[in-house]
Amino acid sequence: MRTMLALALLVFAIPAFAANHAVQIKGMKFSPAKIRVAVGDTVTFTNADPMAHTATALDGSFDTGQLAKGKSAKVKISAAGAHAFKCAIHASMKGTVTAK
Ligand SMILES: [Cu+2]
């Protein structure tokens, strides 16, 4: 019973420590292109360009899917390490989310 309570408290405690990080997509670039987060944090990608973009992790850990102009998507970073990502439509657009 005590273990259950401790687990329940832990589950409720985690969101309080998870931070959200914002990345703008503008001018065919991610801004900032390199961000540092903690495991469990979220990253919101917002597309300010007139054309669609994605933010797709090369290791498959996250993918926003296609974001039309003005759209945003929030992804959760669940694994530690450096997650390189790119736009699946425009290969020159790159960035890295480093989580620890
Ligand atoms: Cu793109």
Describe the SSE topology.
Elements: H1 2-17, E1 20-26, E2 29-31, E3 34-37, E4 42-47, E5 56-57, E6 72-76, E7 81-86, E8 94-99
Parallel strand pairs: 1-4, 3-8
Antiparallel strand pairs: 1-2, 4-6, 5-7, 7-8
Residues 53, 87, 89-90, 93 line the site of copper (II) ion.
Structure description:
With 100 residues, this protein is α/β, with parallel strands linked by helices. The protein has one domain: Immunoglobulin-like. Helix content is 16%, strand content 39%. The protein is built from one helix and eight strands, in the order αββββββββ. It has one helix at 2-17; strands at 20-26, 29-31, 34-37, 42-47, 56-57, 72-76, 81-86, 94-99. The N and C termini lie far apart (32 Å). The relative contact order is 0.23. The model has no long low-confidence stretch (mean pLDDT 91). It binds copper (II) ion. Copper (II) ion binds at residues 53, 87, 89-90, 93.
Give the number of helices: 1
Widest sheet: strand ordering: 2-1-4-6
Task: Give the integer mean of the pLDDT values.
Answer: 91
Distance between the termini: 32 Å
Low-confidence stretches: none
Q: What portion of residues is helical? A: 10-25%
Order of helices and strands: HEEEEEEEE
Q: Which overall shape is indicated by the principal axes computed on the Cα atoms?
A: elongated
